[in-house]
Amino acid sequence: MHPSWIDYAVLIIYAVFVLGIGFALKRSVKNADDFFSSGRRIPGWIAGLAFLSANLGALEVMGMAANGAKYGLLTNHFYWVGAIPAMVFVGIFMMPFYYGSKARSVPEYLKLRFDEKTRGLNAISFAAMTVLASGINMYAMALVFQLLLGWSIHASILVSAVVVLAYTILGGLTSSIYNEVLQFFLIVFGFAPLVMLGLKDVGGWEGLVARMPDGFAHAWQGLGSASSNPMGIEWLGMAMGLGFVLSFGYWCTDFLVVQRAMAAQDMNAARNTPLIAAVPKMLFPFLVITPGLIAIALTLHPLRGAAPLLTQLPGGGYDYNMALPMLLQHYYPSGMLGLGLTALLASFMSGMAGNVTAFNTVWTYDIYQAYIKKDGSDAHYLWMGRAATFAGILISVGAAYIAMNFKNIMDYLQLLFSFFNAPLFATFLLGMFWKRTTGHGAFWGLVVGTLTAMGHYVLLKMGALHYPSDMAANFYAAIYAFGFCLGSTVLISLFTSPRPDKELAGLVYSLTPKHDATAIAWYRRPALLGGVVLCLTVALNFVFK
Description:
It contains 22 helices and no strands. The chain is mainly alpha-helical.
C-alpha cells in the first residue's frame, strides 16, 4: 500500500493546523515567563493531558509496540508498575515542593534545596539527556516516512525538525501544551482502529494468545526466574529497577513532564495534573502494546498466503522497531493510512516538542542566566529561549543518527535514564525527606551515581558483565546508580554541615506546612483521585497476571 493524495492531504492539514496554533498563540507570548512557563495559567485537565502527551513521543507508540513484539505482555509493566505508582507519588507528595517553591525548573529547585553546583550538574546532564532523547523521536519518525512515503532518512529528519521548530519557537510552552492535547486525541483515534482490525484478523484475544510465543500472554507469570521469561529479568529486578528506580526517577524528577504540572493555574491543579494523566495512561497498553503482540503473532504464524510481517535481521531477532509501521501499511487503506501517519506524526511532535521546551528552559534559566549572563533583560532571555529552541533541535538531529545504532529504541532510552534519572531520584528522595542531606553530599552523590551507571555500561560492552537481555542490563544499571548515589550522599552528608531548618521551609517534607484540601470539593482532592487510580491499576495487574 502506497499513500494516495488523500493521505497526503490529511498530513498537510494537520501540519497547517499545528503551525496555526503556534501563530495564534504568538501574540500571547509577551515575556519570558509566558514563553517558558505559560504564565502558570493552564487549567488542570489540559495540563494533565499535556503531561501524558509529553511522554507520548515516538518512544511510546513505536518503542512500546517494539517491546510488545519482543517481550510480550511483560511490557505492560512500563505502565502498571513503571508509571502509575510514580505518577501518584509525584502528584501527592512532590508537586507541593515544585509548585510551592516557585522554582522555574527542576534544576532551580535543586539550587534552592542544596546549592549552585548541584543545580549546574543537573542542568548540564538534563540538557544532554533531552536532546539525546528527542533524537529518538526524529529517528523513529524518519523510519516511518521512509517505509510508508518512500522518503530518505535524511530528508525525513529535516522536514520534521522544521515543523516542530516553527510552532515551538512561536508560541513557546503554551503552544506545545495545546498541540499536545490535540496530539493526544489524534493518537487515540489513529491507533484504536488498527488494534481492532488486527485482533479481528488473528481471531480475537484467544487467537492472538495462541499465535504468540510461550510466556508472552502473562504480565507476572515467569518472573520467578530470569530464564523463564522473554525479558530475562526476575521480579526483584523488575520491581526495583523498573518499578522503583527508573520509574520514580523519570516521573518524579524529569523536567520534561514536571514542567507541564508547574504550568497549572494553582496548587491543586498542579497536584492533580499527574493524577489526571494516570487515568488514560493505565489504559494505553491496549493501544500501543497490543499492536506489537499482533505483529509478532503475524510474524511467527502469518495469515494464509501472507509473508511474515517483520523482517528477520542478519544478527538474529526481528526488526521490532518496524512493528507499528508494518501494521499500518498492512491494514490501513487510503485515507485511513493518512490518519495513522498523522497519529504517528503527532506522537513524534509531542515527544520532541516536550524535550525541546524543557531544554530551552533549563538552558536559559539554569545555564545561560546562572553562569553566562546574569543581568540580562526579560526581552533578552525571551530571545535566548527562542535561540535555544533552534539549537536544541539542531543537536537533536545529530542525536537521531546515534539512535540508528540501536535495534530497539526503548533499550536506548532506558540506558539514558539509568545514566541520569536513576541517581537523580536518590538525590531528590533524600533532599525532600531527610533534612540532614547537604549540598556537598547531593553533588558528589550525583557524580558517583552517574559514573557508576556509565562504568556499568563500559564493563558490559567489554564483556565483563552479562545479562539475559539489554533491558535487564539497563534495570540493574539503574539499581546500582541509585544505590551508589544514595550511599555516597548519606555518607558525605554525615561529614558535612547541613543548612539551618529555617532555610529549608517549603523545601523539605518535615519542615513544610501541609496542603489543606478540606476546602476543595471531595472529587477534586488529590488523595482520593490517587487512591482510585492505584486500585484500578492493581485490578489490571490481577486480570492480566
